[in-house]
Task: inverse folding
């Protein structure tokens, strides 16, 4: 089985990238041939090659490092990937669709950002395995915070990551069912769903009594397994499988959703996520994903 390599960059692809990748592949006993010359599309620059064999994770990491020295991101598409058969786009919210971790910013208004951020980072790196326990610990620190802070975070801190609007517009133009699934909070997902037109949004609900956060989450917590289950549900609705879905995330709790999807994209992600994803976007915007599914 061969693998297609796609370089993506904000500037013209640097000379020497193809030969550097080919040299590394040769050491592994793999032939690399250019399948598409350098091109520009959607304000990005790309180039494609075909490897004669599937690439092991270690080889992918090394090739991404090579691409990085040439100012490019790198994606790997398997032989069986059929972009024309995609039916679903599912993505995370915090630090993927948007520029912040909402819970950290809520905590900042309460003077507790350092304590909450420490738990958030450890969780996203996969050091704290139980996301539900992690979220409960962080939310508990918010007890007594005014609910007005949520609106302040949305208006003052939250921004869409580069290419977010274009990605959603492109996905809807293609008729994809779009799912926003987050371990964050419904206050934010509902607003973003309305703004960007997501077909469905799932997240956690903060308990609010007398205008203040109680430090508790209502109902079942949306963790990694729940994200995967919501995606499975959407695929059932669309009469397809995860192989017909494109997934995007940045933290370890996104991995169950991303695993076995048609193409998984790690956006400005933690190392553990980049290692397992088909594509790693550290430079290009979210809408570069559209170049992988044309």
Result:
């Amino acid at each position: 089985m061969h693998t297609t390599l796609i370089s993506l960059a904000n500037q013209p692809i640097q000379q020497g990238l193809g030969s550097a990748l080919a040299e590394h592949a040769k050491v592994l006993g793999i032939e690399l041939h250019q399948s598409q010359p350098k091109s520009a599309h959607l304000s990005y620059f790309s180039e494609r090659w075909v490897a004669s064999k599937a690439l092991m994770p270690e080889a992918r990491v090394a090739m991404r490092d090579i691409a990085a020295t040439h100012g490019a991101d790198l994606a790997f598409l398997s032989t069986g990937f059929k972009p024309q058969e995609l039916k679903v786009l599912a993505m995370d919210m915090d630090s993927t669709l948007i520029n912040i971790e909402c819970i950290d910013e809520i905590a900042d208004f309460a003077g507790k950002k350092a304590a909450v951020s420490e738990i958030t980072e450890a969780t996203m790196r996969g050091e704290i395995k139980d996301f539900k326990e992690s979220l409960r610990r962080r939310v508990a620190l918010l007890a007594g915070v005014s609910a007005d802070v949520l609106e302040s975070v949305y208006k003052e801190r939250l921004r869409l990551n580069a290419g977010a609007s274009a990605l959603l517009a492109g996905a809807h133009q293609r008729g994809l069912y779009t799912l926003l699934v987050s371990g964050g909070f419904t206050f934010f997902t509902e607003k973003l769903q309305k703004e960007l037109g997501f077909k469905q949004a799932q997240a956690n609900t903060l308990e609010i009594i007398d205008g203040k956060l109680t430090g508790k989450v209502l109902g079942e917590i949306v963790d990694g397994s729940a994200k995967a289950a919501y995606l499975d549900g959407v695929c059932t609705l669309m009469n397809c499988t995860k192989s017909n879905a494109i997934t995007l995330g940045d933290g370890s709790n996104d991995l169950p959703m991303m695993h076995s999807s048609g193409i998984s994209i790690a956006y400005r992600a933690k190392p553990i996520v980049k290692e397992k994803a088909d594509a790693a976007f550290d430079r290009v915007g979210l809408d570069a994903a559209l170049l992988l599914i044309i």
Remarks:
- Residues 216 and 239 are 36 Å apart (CA to CA).
- The radius of gyration is 20 Å.
- The longest strand covers residues 32-41.
- Residues 1-80 form a domain with the Alpha-Beta Plaits fold (CATH 3.30.70.260).
